[in-house]
Fold each of these.
Amino acid sequence: MNDYRDLTTREAFGRSIAELGNSNPDIVVLDADLSRSTMTKYFAQAHPDRFIECGLTEQNMIGIAAGLASCGKIPFASTFAVFASSRCFDQVRMSIAQPKANVKIVATHGGITVGEDGSSHQAIEDIGMYCLLPNFRVIVPADSVETVEVIKAAAMTHGPFYIRLGRSKSPVVYGGACDFQLGKASMLREGKDATIIANGIMVSKAMDAATSLSTCGIDCRVINMSTVKPVDKETILDAARETGAIVTAEEHLLHGGLGSIVAQLLASECPTPLESLGINDVYCKSGKPEDLLEIQGLTASGIYDSVKKVMARKRSK
Amino acid sequence: MDENKTADLEAMARKLRRHVINMIYTAGSGHPGGSLSAADIVTALYFKVMRHDPHNPHWEDRDRFILSKGHAAPILYAALGECGYFPIEWFTTLRKTGSCLQGHTDSNLTPGVDASAGSLGQGLSIGIGMALAARLNKKTYHTFVLLGDGECEEGQVWEAALTAPNLKINNLTAIVDYNGIQLDGFTRDIMDLEPFIAKWNAFKWDIIEIDGHDMGQIISALTKAKTAQSKLTVIIAHTVKGKGVSFMENNVDFHGKAPNKAETEQALKELA
C-alpha cells in the first residue's frame, strides 16, 4: 500500500474504490456534483456505467443509493461531510438507517481543516449525527493507508457505513501495513501513565504529543479509535484500568463524538479522569487549517497539556 | 378470481376498503382517507398489473412497488394480505406492540413491503435507485411509486423528478393519488400545486391523466406506462379522499382519524 502513503485520504478513497470496482461489479458510486473534489472521478472514468451523477440533489442521492442497495448493489455515495450529514439527515435516517440499507456514505472535507471555505463547509457535527443513528457504523480513518483498508472493509461488510475523510493531506500514521479491523481500535504506542484516544488527523498529533511527553518521563499510550461506532469498549476500559487517565482528541464538536462516547462508557463502567479535546460549541471561521486547529487547541501541544492535566487529576484522586 | 374481469377487481377493491376500515378501527388510529383514495390503484397493481409472487417476496425479477405516502400503509397491507404475503389474521395487529404491521410501512418487518416510508417525499428517489439497479442487473422488472398530492410539496420529489429523465430512466412509473386533501385542509388552500400537469411536463415526464376510481382507466394507464419502453410516465390519478364511505369522502377530518364503532358499522355497510 506504499502507493497511497503520500495521498490525501480522499485521493486514496477515489483510487481504491475505482480499483475495487474492477473486481466487484456490484459496486456503484454516486456523487452530487463533487466528483472532482471527493475523487470519485476515478471511478467515473473507470466505470462510467456504474457512476451515477446526481447533480446537486443530495437528499435524492441518498434515496437512489437506498433503492440500488435494496436490489443487491453496493452503493458508495459521496459528497462533502457537511452535506452528507445535515443536508440529508432525514433521508439517511428513513431510507438507509431504519431499513439497514447496504449503503456506504463516504464524506470528504470533514472537520475544520477544510479551512478557507469557512463555517458553511466545516462539518463539525457529522460524526455525532451519524453516531446517533441505529444500524450505522461510523469510521474516521487516521491517514490514507488506513482509508484504503476501511473502504475495503466497508465494501465487504453488509450494512450502512459513514466514513469521514478530510480535504488536506493527513500526516502518515501507518508507514507500513495497516491491519484495520472493523470495531477494533489499534494501539499505536504502549504506555502505562495515561492514554490518548484519538482519530482522524488527531492521531498523528497524539503520537507527537506522546513523543514529547516521553522526554519528560511520561509513558503515554496512544490509541487510534478510527471506528467510533461500534466503539471498541474493551480497549477503552483496558486503558482506563491500566493507565488511570484518558485524553480524547477529535476534529469535531465535543458533544456527540468520540469524547462523548468515551465519557459515557467510562462514567458507567470505569470512572476515570478524562480530558477531551474538540471544538467547544462554536462554529469556526475561514483560515489556514493549521491556524484553525491552533485556535481550537487541536494540536500536539494541546494534547500534551491535557495529558499533564489529566495526570494531575489522577494523582489527586 | 378471474383477474381479467374489471368487476372482480372492483369487488376486490371494496374488500380491501373493508379491511382498511376494520384495521384502523381495531387499531384505534391510522389514516383512512388516503388509504381509501388509493384503494383502486393498489388493487389494480397487485391483482392485475404487477408481476410478483407472494410466496417469494424477495424474488429478484418482481415488479417493485413503493408506497411513498407511507401513511396509507393499511391499503397496502390489505392488498398484501389478500395476495397471501402473510395471513390476513395479521390485520387485527396493525399498530400494536410486536406487530409486523407498523403504523407506517417498514421493509424490515412486513413481507412484500419494498421500502420503508413515512417521512414524505422519499419514495421516488428510491424508485429511481431500483430502476437503475434493473438496468445494471439486466432485469426487466418495472418500478411503481405511489405519491400523495400533499407529498408533492416536498422538495425531494422534484429533485427526483428532475433526476429521472437526466438518468434516462425508462422503467419507472410514478402515480400521484391526487385526492386534494392534506392534514391541515384542502391542498389548494394549504399549498396549491397547480398547474400540476404543467410542472411534470416541464420536468420532461410523460403524463397520463385518469379518474383514479375508474378501474378500466387505471388498468389501461398502468399497462401503457409499464410497456412504454422509451418514456418515463407519471399517472395523475384524480381521486376522492375517503372514497367509498360517504361521511369520509372529501372530509379533512378523516385524514388521520379512526372511525368509532357506529361509523365503522356504517362504513362497512356502505362498502358491502
Amino acid sequence: MSHLLELHDLEVKFALRTGDIIAIDGVDLTLDKGETLGLVGESGAGKSVTGFSIINLISKPGYISKGKIIFDGEVISSFSDEKMREIRGNKISMIFQDPMMTLNPVFTIGTQMIETLLAHKNISKSEATKIALEKLQKVQIPSPETRLDQYPHELSGGMRQRIIIAIALLTDPQIIIADEPTTALDVTIQAEIMDLLQELCETDHMSLILITHDLAVVSQVTEEIAVMYAGKIIESGATNEVISNPRHPYTKGLINSIPGSIKPGEKLQQIPGMMPTLSKIPPGCAFNPRCLEKIGICETNIPEPKKTDVGTMASCHLI
Amino acid sequence: MSTPILTIDNVVKHFDITGGFLDQIRFKNGKFKLEKTTVKAVNNVSLSINQGETLSVVGESGCGKSTLARVVMGLYAPNSGQILYSGKRIDNLSHKEMLPFRKKMQMIFQDPYASLNPRKTVQRTLEEPLRFHNPKMSSKKIYDKIEEIMEQVGVDPAWAKRFPHEFSGGQRQRISIARGLILDPELIVADEPVSALDVSIQAQILNLLMETGKKRRLTYLFITHDLSVVQHISTNVAVMYLGNLCELADSGTLFENPRHPYTKALLSAIPKIGETSEKHIKLKGEVPTPIHLPSGCVFHDRCVHANERCVNQIPELLTLDNGTCVACHAVEENRVIS
C-alpha cells in the first residue's frame, strides 16, 4: 500500500557564511490516511524544520539538499512554487504556535477566511462565506456569524487558535501539520483544542502531524510517534509502545525527566548537558556525550535505525 | 506553632488602567460622568508559608499569580492587606527600612533571556547585589563568594567573565538562580522558573532548586502553571482563579482529592504521559476579564454546580476535615460529590 505522505532520506541544509549546517539529516517518515503522527524533540531538534519542509516553506538560506517528499503519489519536493501553491494551504494545511502572530491584526476574521478560500477555489464570495461559517461551527465557536466581523484582538487565545484551525480546514485538507498548537495556551484550553483536533481527524479521516515538545500531549493524541534529536529521528513507532518501552537512551531520559513519572520530592532523572548546536554535532552518535549507557563504538560510528524487540525503530548501537 | 516566615494577609491589588482624563468620561443616563477602569488582579488573598516549605501558587494566565508574587516582593504596593515577614509587616516600609528584608527575599524570573542584563558579565551581575548590600566587603571575599555560588549552581567559575549571550537557556537560568542565592536569602520567590526551558533542562533546574532548597533550608514561593512540576516539588498548593484563592491544601491531598470544581477541571486537563486521554472536565465558556468580575463566586458562570447563592454571595475560604481550605458554596453544602 502506498502512503499518503512519504519522506525519503530528507536532508535540509542552511547555507551560512561559515559553511552549510545540516538541520535535517536523513529523515524517513510515512503518514497514512487518517493517521496521527507526533513529532517530538527539544528545541533545535529539527522538528519544525521537518514540518516546514513538507510544504516547502523553508526560506533562504535553508534548502532541501537531498531526498524527496512524496504526497499522494507525486514528488512534491521538486514542485515549482506555483504548483506547490495548489498543495500548500489546500491539501496540506499548517497550524502554527502563536495564534496572535498567525492572524493578521488589521483584517476581520471573515476577510481572512474568505481570502483563503478565494485563493484556492473558484467560487463566489457568498459561497465562500457559507463555507467559512460552516467551518467555524465545526470548530465549535459560539455565534459564528458575529465572529466573521470581529478582529483577532477581540478574541481570547483559545478562540483564536480555533479560528486558525477553522482556516486550516477551509479547503478540506488531507493533512494538517500542527506546529506546537497549544504551547501558548493554558492547560484547560489545551485539552479542549487537542480534543477538537482528535475529533476532526476521526470524523473527516484527516491525517495529523503534531509537532510538539510535550511528550504527554503526544502520548494522548497520536497513534505514531517519531522522536527527533539533532536533526535525526532516533526512535519511532507506535506511540504507546515507544512511551511504555523506550529503547533509545534519549527517549528514556526524556520520559524520566518529566515530573510525575516518579514520587514527588525525589530527584528527577536528568539528561546531563544539552543538545549540541547544529554546527558542532559530535562524531558518531549525536547523543553520545550525554548518553549514560554509551560504549566505545558510539563515539565513532553513526548508528543505523534498527528494529527493536517491541517492534519500534531505534537508532542506537546498544540494540 | 512558630510564626510563618511569610504571611500574606487579605491582599488586594487593583490596577488602574483608565488612562487620561478624556478616557474617563462616560455618558450615562443623560449625564457625563468620570469613571475609572480597574483590573482586579488580586482580591483578598491570604496565604502563609512556614520555614523550609514550598508553597506553589497555580492558575491559568491572568489569574493574578505573578502579581501576587510581585506584591510579596514589594515590587507592587498592595491596595489593602498586609505582607508579614517573620511576623513583621513589610509592605508599608520605606525604601531604607525595606533593605534588610530585600536581602532575605530574592526572586527568580521566568525568562532567563530577559532577566539578565546583556551588557553585564556574569561576574558583574553576581557582584552587584553583594556590593550593594555589603559595602564593606573586600573584593577578594566577593570574588570567592561568586566562585562558590557558581560552583553550587553548576556553572564553571572560569566563565565568570562571559556575557549572558554566550550561555544556553538552562545555563542562564542557573545564573539567575545564582544571583538569587548570592545574598544567602531565606525566601525565594520563583515566578515560572522552568517554563521557558526544554524538558531535559527543566529536570536539571528543578533538581538544582530542590537540592539547594534542602541544603540551605530555603523557603520557596513557587509560581507556575505547570501542574506536574507543582506536584513534584510542593509542600502546599494554592489554586487561584481570576484573582481569587479557590483552594489551598497540601500537595498530596490536593492532587488526590481536589474539592473545588475549578481545581477538578484543572487537574483533569493535565496530559499525563502513557495514559490515553480520559475525558477531561469541560468548562463552559472562557475566563472572564478581571475588569468586570462576575458577582458572587467568580467561577459561577463556568461552574456546573452553581446556583442562586453562588451568583450572589462571595464564598469564604472554609477549612474542611482533611485540612483542605476551599472557597465554594457547593462544597460547603455538599452539592459536589468528592
Amino acid sequence: MRLETNLIVSVWSNTEKELRANSQEPPTLLLDINKAFPLPYTLPMSTSPVISVQALRKSYADLEAVKGIDFEVSAGEVFGILGPNGAGKTTTVEILEGLRPRTGGNAMVLGFDPERQKQQLKDRIGVCLQATNLPAKIRTHEAIDLFGSFYSRSLTSEQLLKRLQLWDKRDSFYETLSGGQKQRLAIALGLVNDPQLLFLDEPTTGLDPQIRLEIHGLIEELKSEKRTVVLTTHYIEEAERLCDRVAIMDEGRIVAMGSPRELQQKSRGQSRIQIVCEQPLNAIQLPQWPEAMDSKLEPDGRSLTVYSNRPARTLFEIMRWLDQQGIQLEDVHLKRPTLEDVFVELTGKKLRD
Amino acid sequence: MKSYLALITTDLKLAARLRVVIFFNYLFPLMIFFIFGSVFGARKSVDSIIYVLTMSITLGILGNGFFGAGIRAVQEREMNILRRYKVTPISPAPLLVASMVTGWVIFMPYIILVFILAHTLYHMPWPAHFGQLLFFISLGLITFRSLGLVIASVANNMQEAGILVQLCYFPMLFLSGATVPSEVFPHFVRVISEFIPATYLVNGVREIMMKGQQLPVESIVALVIAAIVGLILSMKLFRWEKEEKIRTSAKLWILAVLLPFLVLGAWEIHKGQDKPPVSTFGR
C-alpha cells in the first residue's frame, strides 16, 4: 500500500514536471502549492475543458429548472452565467458543485462526475454561495482555520486575511463585520483550499457600488492568477467587465453564448447616439440621417437621441448637419448595444424583471 | 480527524461566548438547585438533597439535549450556516460528533460543581460510586442529545421543532419523577411514567446515589440503544438546507429512538414492578 502510494505520487510529480516544462505561463498561486503540498492534485490541462456539460437537465416536482444545456469552460477562463432570477443559473452551478443531483445529461468538473465523486470534487473546488451565514460569535481567523480543516490541504488564515484585506479584522466576530467584509470573508473561505476552480454565485448581489467594485477587483486578481472562475450574476456591467465568455440563460435554457464583444456584435440592436446642443432644436425641421432608424428629441429641445445600425456614418452626418446649421455642440455620447440589449432582444424581457 | 478536532474546538469557543448556553447549562439548573433546596429543607435530610440534586441534573440534561442540541441544530439550518458547510468535503458525522462532545464538555463541570455544592452546603455524603454516577449521567446526556438531534432532523422549521421539543420535554419533566415525586402519581400515571425515557435517568441516578447499587443494567442498555439509534438516524436524515423538506411521516422516526424505553416500560410492567421506583422524597 505504501509502495503503491509512493508510486502514484512519483507518477504525478513527473506529470506535474512535464506540465510545468510545457507551460508558457506557469500558474501564479497564492502559495507555491507544489512545494507546500506534494500530493497529487489535478492541474487542468490547458487543452481539456475544466468543465464540460452536455444536455444537462434538472427537474423539481412540477418545474423544469434546467432544460438541456451544453457548454464548456476552459482553464484560466472567467465564465459568466447571466440571467434574471429563476433562469436556472444557481441550479446549474449547484449541480456542478456537487450540491444537487441532475435529472439528465452529463457533467464533468475537473475530471470528476459531480454527482458520483462529490467528495473528491468538493475537496478541489472553491465555492462562494448566495445567502450563507456563519455563527455570529465566530472570529474571522477562526472561521478560516475551521474551514481549512475540512480540506486535504489549506492556506493559513494569515495568508488569506492579509490577501483579502481583513487582517485588521482577524479577531472580529462575524456579526460585527460590514456587508462587504462578510463577502470578502466568504471569498476567503472559497479560497481556503487554494482551488484552481472557483464558483462565485452572485457575489455582489445586495452590496453597495463601492464594495461591488472592490469585489470586481478581487475577481480580476483571481483571473490574473490563472484560476478558472464560474460567475453567476444578473449585473450586466459585472459580466461585461469580468467575463471572458458569457452564457445568457433564460427559463432553463442558454439563449446565447460567447465573449461579451461577440454577443454585442451579433446583436441586431442599434447603437444610441446622444447629443446635447447649446440651443434648442424644436423650431428646426430635423432631417432623415443616413442609417438612422429612429430619433427622439427630449422635451428640453436640446437633447437628441438617434438610433442607428451604422453609428459612425450617422454620427458623421449629424456632425456635418450641426455644423451647417451653425449649432454649437455641448456633449456627445455613442452607446453600443449592451448585453442587456442583447438579452432583451433574445428573450423580450429585462434582466432584472 | 482534524475536522473533528477543529469543529469541537470551535463549538466550545462559540458555546463559551453565548450567554444563553451559560444560562441553560449553569445558571438555570443552579437556580433550581438552590430554590428547591431551600423549599424542601434539603439541609435536614439526605433524601431531600438527593431529590433536589437529581431534579437539577435532569433539568440540565433535558435542556442540554432538547434545546442545546435539537433547537440549535435547527437554528443553524434555518440561518444557512449548515448550507455553507455543505459545499465543503465534510459529512454530517463530524458536525454531530462535535455537537455531542461539546455538549458533554460544557455540562460536566456543572455536574462536578453541583455535587460539591450539595456536599459542602447541604451536607450530602459524597457518593460512594461517583465514577459510575458520572458514567451514567454522561450516557443520559448523550442519549438526550441524540433525541434532540433526531428531532432537529425530522422538523422542517423552528415551529415544528418547538412543538416536537415541547411534546417530549414536558412529559419528561413532569412524569419522570424528576420534578413531581412519583409517589404522588396515581396508578395510571405511574404506568405512563414507565414508558418515559427520563424516568430511567432519574431512577438510575437516585439508585446509584441512595442505595449504592451497581449500575442499572436494563436502563443502561435502553439508553445506549436509544443513543446509537438516535445518532444513526440523525446522520441518515441530516439536512443541510432549510429548503430540503422532509415528509411529515418522517416524524415517526422519533418513536424509533423511544422504542427501547417502550420495550423496557412494557417489561417493567410485565414484571409487576410498577411500584414507586425509589423512595425519593424526604419528608
Amino acid sequence: MMISNGIEDEEKWLAEGMAGIQHNAFYLHRALDSNNLREALKYSALLLSELRTSRLSPHKYYELYMRAFDELRRLEMFFKDENRHGCSVVDLYELVQHAGNILPRLYLLCTVGSVYIKSKEAPAKDVLKDLVEMCRGVQHPIRGLFLRSYLAQISRDELPDIASEYESEGDTFMDAVEFVLQNFAEMNKLWVRMQHQGPLREREKLDKERNELRDLVGKNLHVLSQIEGVDLEIYRDTVLPRVLEQVVNCKDELAQYYLMDCIIQVFPDEYHLQTLETLLGACPQLQSAVDIKTVLSRLMERLSNYAASSPEVLPEFLQVEAFTKLSNAIGKVIEAQVDMPIVGAITLYVSLLTFTLHVHPDRLDYVDQVLGECVKKLSGKAKLQDSRVTKQVVALLSAPLEKYNDIVTALTLSNYPRVMDHLDAATNKVMAMVIIQSIMKNNTCVSTSDKVEVLFELIKGLIKDIEGTSTDELDEEDFKEEQNSVARLMHMLYNDDPEEMLKIINTVWKHIMAGGPKRLPFTVPPLVFSTLKLVRRLQVQDGDVAGEEVPATPKKIFQILNQIIEALSVVPSPELALRLYLQCAEAANDCDLEPVAYEFFTQAFVLYEEEVADSKAQVTAIHLIIGTLQRMNVFGIENRDTLTHKATGYSAKLLKKPDQCRAVYACSHLFWVDDQDGIKDGERVLLCLKRSLRIANAAQQMVNVTRGSSGPVTLFVEILNKYLYFFEKGSPQITGAAIQGLIELIKTEMQSDSTTSNPASDAFFASTLRYIRFQKQKGGVMGEKYDPIKL
Amino acid sequence: MNFIIGAFKPACNVSITFSDGKSRKQVPLKNENGQTVTVPLFQSQETIAGKISVEPVSGKKVEHNGIKVELLGQIEMYFDRGNFYDFTSLVRELDVPGEIYERKTYPFEFSSVEMPYETYNGANVRLRYVLKVTVSRGYAGSIVEHQNFVVRNYTPPPSINNSIKMEVGIEDCLHIEFEYNKGKYHLKDVIVGKIYFLLVRIKLKNMDLEIRRRESTGSGANTHVETETLAKFELMDGAPVRGESIPIRLFLSPYELTPTYRNINNKFSVKYYLNLVLVDEEDRRYFKQQEITMYRLQETS
C-alpha cells in the first residue's frame, strides 16, 4: 500500500510542478513578448523555483527539468538580443544574481553565462570558471546534478577548443578541459553522496535511482573526449590522472565501476594503450565490491579489437609492453580484492588470454604464462564444483585451441594440463572432447611421442577412469561417443619416421592400457591398425632396413601387436581379438614372416577353440579364418597343412548342417589359390566339395525327418556354383559330368513332392543355369569347355 | 467647496527654487504622509542657494513682520512624536517688516553648510533637512513654506578594510569557517566570500545570508531597538559534506541600505549585520551574526 501511495503521490507532485511551470511560463512568455526584462526575470525565477522540490525521484525530476529546460532556451534567445531588453550582458550577468533563491539564481546565471561567452565580452574561461564555482552552492545531489548537467549542456558549444571561435590568446582548450574536469568532479561527488542519503533499507531503490543519473556524470567524460585539443599528451598528463583521482577517491563502488567503464569506452584505444600503466594502476585501488573483472575485460576486449583493426598498431602494443602491464595489473587486482570469487579471477584470465591471442598470437609463452597464473590461483583448491568457474576454465582452455586451430601448439603449453587438472571429471571429459574435436576438425597431425604423451595426459579423462568417480552413472551412448572420438584421434597421431612412429605407438599403448575393459574394445583396434599401417610402410621400404639396431623392424612391431591384442583377453572380446590376429597375420604374411604369421594364426585358433562359444560367432569366425588363410602365401607346406587341416576340421564341426556345408565348401578355396604360384590341389578341392555335398544331403534329410518336407535346394545350388568356379579355373578333378550330375540332382530334388519351393533358391538356380547357357553360347575356350554339359 | 478653500487660502504663494535646480540631482523621498516626492540632493559643505518668491494672491497686499528663510536639520523620534530636535539651524532674514503688493523675489544663500548627518527614514526615527520660509504676520498667523531636500554624504574608501574571517561551531556537530572579503562595504558593493565546512554532523537543509539593520534610538533606559531583515539570500541548497566550500556573492545594490550611522547627535544609531543562518532538516536554525560597516561611496557616474 505504501509503495503504491508513494508512486501516486509522486505523480501528483510531478503534476503540480508541471502546472507551476506551465503557469509561470505563461507570464514569462508574455513578458518576453513585451520585452519586459524585469518581469521576465521574475517569472523565470518563479518557474525555476519548481525545480526546488525534493519530493520527486530522479526519473520524475528529469521530466520536470526538461520542461523547465525548454523555457530556459526561450529565455536565452531573449537574453541574446540586447535590443529587446536594453541591458548589457555584463549587467544582465549581475542582475540575475539578485534572485534570492539559489537554484533559480544559478540556472539563470548559467543561461546568461552562455550568452556572455557568446558575446565575447569576457574571456570564456573566466565565465566558465565563475559558473562552475558558483554552482557549488547547490549541494543537494539530485538538484545539483541536474544544475551542473545544465551547465555542461549549455556550455558545450562555447568551450574554447582548438580552432573554435572561443579560443583566443587567453583562452585555450586547457581552460575548457579544466572546466569540464571540475564540473565532472563536483558532479561525481554529488552523485556519490546520494548513496548516503536516506535509510539503509532503501538501498536498492537508491541504487536504481543513482543508476538513472549516471549518464549525467558520464556525459562530462564524453565531452572531454570530444575536445579536440585533448591529445595524447594532455590526456596522459592531465585528463586521465585527474579523472582517476576522482574515481579512486570517491570510494563508491557504483561510481567506480561506471566511470572506469566510461573512461574505457569514451577515449580512443590508442590513448588507453599509451596510458595503460596509469589506467591499470587505478584498478587495485578500487573498492573491493567493484566488478573490476568486467571493466578489465572490456578494456582488453577493446584493445584486442584495436589490435585487430589494423596491423600497423601492433608495434605500439609491443612498445608499451601491453601484455606485461595487463598481466601485472590483473595480478594486483586479484591480490587486492581478497574476496573476489574465483570465478572472477578466472574470467579475468580468460580476458587476458583472449587479448594476448589477438595481439600476440606468436607469443606462446604469454599464453602459457596466463595459464600458469591460473594454476597458481587454482592451486590448493579442491576440484572445481562451481559451474560458473568451470565454464570459465573451459573457456580459458578452449581459447588457444580456437585461435591456433592446432592442438600441437597447445601441447607445448606446459601449464595447459595443469589447468585441466582442476576441472571436475565431467568437465574434464567435455574439455577433452573439445580438444579431440579440434584436432579432427583441423586435421591436425600430432607427430611426436612427446606431444602424444602430453595430449593423452590432457585427455586422460577419456582414456581412463578417474579416481573417485563411479562409472555406473555414465551414459552408455555418451561413453561410446567419447571412446569413438578417442579411436578417431589415434589416426591423427602420425609420423613419417618409423622410429618416432613406433614411439608414438608405444606411448599410446601405455596410456590405453590403463583404460580398463570397457575402453579397450574401442581403443585397441585403431591402435592395431595404426601399427599395421606402420608395418606396411616398413614393408614397402623393405630394402632400407639395415642392421639390427634399427628398433622399428616389423618383427618387433609384431611382438608389440601381439601384446596389444592380448590385452583384449581381459575384456574379454574374443571375436574382436580374433579378427585383429587375422589382420596381423595377413600383414605378417606380406612381410614374409612365416613364424609370426603362424603364431598369429595359432592365437586365432586358440581363441576360436577356447573363447568363441556362440555358434553364430563361430560361423563368422571360421569364415574369417578361411578367408585370411586362403590369402596366405608365406607358409611352408607343413605349416599350411596344419592350418588348413585345422580350419577344415572346425568347419565340419559347426553346429548346424547348413553352416557346416557352407564352411566346408569355403575350405575348398584353401586348396586352390588362383595365383601364379598358388597352390592348386584339385584333388582336395573335390574332396571338400564332395564332403559339403554329403553334408547338404544330410541336411536335406534331417529337414525331411523333422518337418516332413525337404528344405530348399539352396545349398545344392551354392555347391553347384563352387563346382562351376573350379571348373572354369581349370581344376582337372572337376568335370563336366560331375556338374551335369549335380544339375540333375538339383532338378530331381526340386521336382520331388516333399520339396517346398523357395522362390529365392529357384531364382538362384535358374540364373545359374542361365549362366551356363550363356557360357555355352559364347563359344571360345570356355564355350568348348562347357559344351559337354547338357541342360 | 472651492470658495471655502479659497477663504482659507493663504494670502500669498511662497515658492522656493534652487539656483541649480535644473542640473541638480533629484532623489525620491518619502514624506510624512507616506507620499514619495522627488527632492534635490545635497551633501555637506555645499552651498544651498536659490530664490524665494512671495506672490500675494491677486491684488491683495500682504502685511508682514519680516520674511526669513531657515535651513533646519531635524531629528524626529516617533515615540516622542512632534518633537524635533534641531541639530542645525541657520537663518537668513529676507525682508524687514513691511507690505508686499506684488510678486517679490528674494535670493538666498547658505554657503558651505555643515550638514554632517544624512537624511534618514527609519523605523523609529527620522532625520530630515528642510528649508523653511516664514512670512511672519502678527494677527493672521505666519505663512510658512517648507522645502525638503536630501543630504547624502560620501566617504572615501577606507584605507584599512580587513576581511571578516571566523571559525564557529557547535562542538562535535558543526564547524564552519566563514570569510567575508571586507568589513566595510559601500552601498553598491558586492559581498564576496565563502563558507568552509570543517565538520558536518547534522543534516543541513539550506543556508542563507541575511542583511539585518539594527536601529537603536534614545539612550539609557529609553533605548528602543528595532531590527529589520532587509535581505534573505540563499547561499546553499542541500546538505554539504566535510570539506565543501560554498561561495558567497551577494550584490548589495538591490537593497535599500544606508551607511552605518553611529550615535547620530546622541539620538540614534543604525548598524548593519550579516547574519549567516544554517537550517537543518528539523528546521532548527544555527546562526552567526557579524557587524559590517556600510558607507556611501561617491558615485563616479
